[in-house]
Amino acid sequence: MPGPLVSCICLSENRVNLLKTAVFDFMNQTYPNKELIIITSEDDLDTINANFQENEFIKLYSVSSQTSIGNRRNLAIDVSDGDIIAIWDDDDHHAPDRIRIQLKYFRNSNIYKGSILMQIKIVNTLTGESFNSKIKMWEGTLVCKKKYAPKYLDKNDKEDSLPVRALNDKGYLAVIYGPQYRSLYHYNYHGGNINTWDTFKKMIPIYSV
């Protein structure tokens, strides 16, 4: 049995090269039963015309540029066909086993409805430096049953913090922590992020290596 369909939720706008890397990571997943939902702005012609949707595993939707990040996430979840959703940021790295490992923590559980990583890698792609992150819930690593997917806030910043925290407060999330799991997700600084490198450094413990 291939397992439940996992819908990976990817928001992207005007950065096709980064999106191509996210698509590569998606296609390289060891978990086979998956789809990628890409949401972009209707005026982002570079992404729309890049023909991502020619891939049978990928669906692309465009929305008004005024649509918030939170509502874009909600739309992607609504149009997805999977029983499971996985947040799939377009400028970060997703290791080949990410879906498979996170899914196994709740797939057959009577308690947990999803899983989330508690420690990841912070990577400065401009310098090649890599650091272990602080230990916290990294909202961008959420994988959960669609039925229990959070309703994201109609905002462009911190739209995910409260909804994901609410899932955890209900005891729905298996929290994954351990040195063997840090590399499942790389939070990448590439110079085009909303946050500066100084902000990224605040997420790195002093003695992290």
Write the topology of this structure:
Layout: E1 6-11, H1 16-27, E2 34-41, H2 45-48, E3 58-63, H3 69-79, E4 84-87, E5 93-94, H4 98-104, E6 114-117, E7 121-124, E8 129-132, E9 143-145, H5 161-169, E10 173-176, E11 185-189, H6 197-201
Parallel strand pairs: 1-2, 1-4, 2-3, 6-10, 7-11
Antiparallel strand pairs: 4-9, 5-11, 6-9, 7-8
Textual characterization of the structure:
With 209 residues, the chain is of the alpha/beta class. It has one domain (6-201): Spore Coat Polysaccharide Biosynthesis Protein SpsA, Chain A. 23% of the residues lie in helices and 24% in strands. It has helices at residues 16-27, 45-48, 69-79, 98-104, 161-169, 197-201; strands at 6-11, 34-41, 58-63, 84-87, 93-94, 114-117, 121-124, 129-132, 143-145, 173-176, 185-189. The strands form 2 sheets. It has a 7-stranded mixed sheet with strand order 3-2-1-4-9-6-10, sandwiched between helices. A 4-stranded mixed sheet has the order 5-11-7-8. Strand 1 (6-11), helix 1 (16-27) and strand 2 form a beta-alpha-beta unit. The chain starts with 5 loop residues before the first strand and ends in an 8-residue tail after the last helix. The model has no long low-confidence stretch (mean pLDDT 95).
